[in-house]
Amino acid sequence: MSIASHLELSGVGISFPTDKGLFCALQNVNLKINKGEFVSLIGHSGCGKSTVLNIIAGLYQASTGGVILDGKEVNEPGPERAVVFQNHSLLPWLSCYQNVELAVKQVFGGKKSKAEIREWILHNLELVHMTHALDKRPDEISGGMKQRVGIARALAMQPKVLLMDEPFGALDALTRAHLQDSLMEIHATLGNTVIMITHDVDEAVLLSDRIVMMSNGPAASIGDILDVPLARPRDRLALAEDPAYNKCRQQVLQFLYQRQQRPAA
Amino acid sequence: MSNLSVAKRISQTQTQVVLPLMKKLAPQLILPIVGILVFLLCWHVIAGKIDTSLGKFPGPVQVYEQFNGLVAAHVKEQERAAAFYERQEKRNAAKLEKNPDAKVKIRPYTGKPTFFSQIVTSLYTAMTGFALASLIAIPLGIVCGLSSHMYSAANPLIQVFKPVSPLAWLPLVTMLVSALYVSDDPLLSKSFLTSAITVALCCLWPTLVNTIVGVSSIPQDLQNVSRVLRLKPLTHVRRIVLPASIPMIFTGLRLSLATGWMVLIAAEMLAQNPGLGKFIWDEFQNGSSQSLSRIMVAVLVIGLIGFALDRLMLAVQRLVSWDKSAVLR
């Protein structure tokens, strides 16, 4: 018997009812992801990347096929598949500390003591370098900081899989680079399985072990999967000169702009 | 330097100090005062030209006189009540001196309610009705906001009952209270219950509708956070739904309180529940030369109390709301 993969999507498809009948958004998505792997989903807008992520999160139900995590079928959302949302989704009435606390108390409520809970919250905020703003509310910190707290909240759930829906899409280039470095650091330390949606080719190549390139919808599916054979830790400056890095970049760009023409926008 | 130029310079510095101050105060203080003065002037001029069967329509001066008269009557009535209780105590003390086992009791003073005791009754009734309405509307609104099925079921009823006037409810409520609230020693008087329930029936709707809108427009992302965390339904309501919809709930509560206060006066007039409504009705029936002025006093007091109640709710909202930066009006 072969070792079952950590996370497996088999024959996943989803249709939404519309005025003109069923709209098939995704069809036959098959993907196996190993423990500790960093996988990016890339594709043109509207190709169903977020839908795939939401199905893994359990926020949507697949119409056909299904998702199996560690031998169990996924059919509802849960903290073992924590999500980092595109626009941070922090609760605006809670401080940074309280936002993480809500998640930690929910997940570790009966299992950790009060002191341990506090320590765990601080530890996760430390990972994203946000301990200086514990008592600040989301509207008092910058967009990058909010996203850091959002990541801390997700990490604090100690998820089996960390799902990130364009986590840095709304940030400026410099902040994004900082957060990418932080994310690589965290991934190196904790070894989480990460699935990240991105629009950014450089980001995908820099961060991922594999890049899943999606074909255009309707009835979108996986077009191609690219292995990124770059050694870790990766350094963005050194990689700029690296032929392997540039080759990967080239392949993703080729897929996006030659094999999958941008749909009329 | 001549005296003249010194004087000129002083007046210049004065204008330099005074003008900016005027500019700063004008919108907040001076303009409202100007508005009120213009209103009083128009009122005075127009009132003097109107003759009614009860004499001239009261102007600001007559109304002010009547206000003082009502205050004096209130003070007098209080003195009478105090004297009444004092007499009883003296009598009881004397009785106890003769016979220590004697049964003594204090009878309540049953004098005529004054204008100010009517205000207290009105406020008490309105608050009871408002509290009753809020206790129903907020939980019901949350349930309807969370569940589209519940909303579909409740919506037609809300739309139909929302525009009903309090006067239409009143006879039904009166009969229901008479039929259902049967007690030999009633804790609450029937007329009080009737008015309070009528107020509740009318001021239920703004809170209900606004709570539904507030709850159903919680951003999908926040709901997803709750789903990923697997918050239990009650925790979801407490940690996500309530804080997120507090601003809308308060908008509804303020509208409800204003409606309730408005409805109360009409309800009291018809239900003959002691209160401002009854005061106005009695004065109207009384038809003395002072009646119109007294009614005008009541009108102004009703307005001022309504305004004060709204400010009070605003203060509570500021206290409860997490979003201190929001502009609350």
From TrEMBL, chain A:
Q: What's the domain of life for this entry?
A: Bacteria
Fetch the Pfam families from UniProt: ABC_tran
Where in the numbering of this chain does the ABC transporter domain appear?
Answer: 7-241
The protein's name is Nitrate/nitrite transport system ATP-binding protein
Q: Does the keyword Coiled coil apply?
A: no
Please name the PROSITE patterns in this protein's record.
Answer: ABC_TRANSPORTER_1 (PS00211), ABC_TRANSPORTER_2 (PS50893)
Q: How does it sit in the membrane?
A: Peripheral membrane protein
- Which is one Gene Ontology cellular component term of this protein? plasma membrane
In which compartments does the protein localize?
A: Cell membrane
Q: One GO molecular function term? A: ATP hydrolysis activity
PANTHER family attached to this UniProt entry: NITRATE ABC TRANSPORTER ATP-BINDING PROTEIN, TAURINE IMPORT ATP-BINDING PROTEIN-RELATED
Signal peptide feature range: none
What are the entry keywords?
Answer: ATP-binding, Cell membrane, Membrane, Nucleotide-binding, Transport
Q: Which InterPro entries match?
A: AAA+_ATPase (IPR003593), ABC_transporter-like_ATP-bd (IPR003439), ABC_transporter-like_CS (IPR017871), ABC_transporter_ATP-bind (IPR050166), NO3_transporter_ATP-bd-like (IPR005890), P-loop_NTPase (IPR027417)
Where mainly located?
A: membrane
- Family per UniProt? Belongs to the ABC transporter superfamily.
TrEMBL record, chain B:
**GO CC terms in record:** plasma membrane
State the name under which the record lists this protein: Nitrate/nitrite transport system permease protein
Annotated GO biological process: transmembrane transport
Q: Which UniProt keywords apply?
A: Cell membrane, Membrane, Transmembrane, Transmembrane helix, Transport
TM ranges: 29-46, 123-146, 167-183, 195-219, 240-271, 291-309
The positions making up the signal sequence are none
Q: Which residues form the ABC transmembrane type-1 domain?
A: 119-313
Q: Which domain of life is it from?
A: Bacteria
Q: What family does the entry list?
A: Belongs to the binding-protein-dependent transport system permease family.
The membrane topology term of the UniProt record is: Multi-pass membrane protein
| SUPFAM superfamilies on file | MetI-like
Its annotated compartments are: Cell membrane
Q: Does the keyword Hydrolase apply?
A: no
Main location group? membrane
The record's section on CDD domains has: TM_PBP2
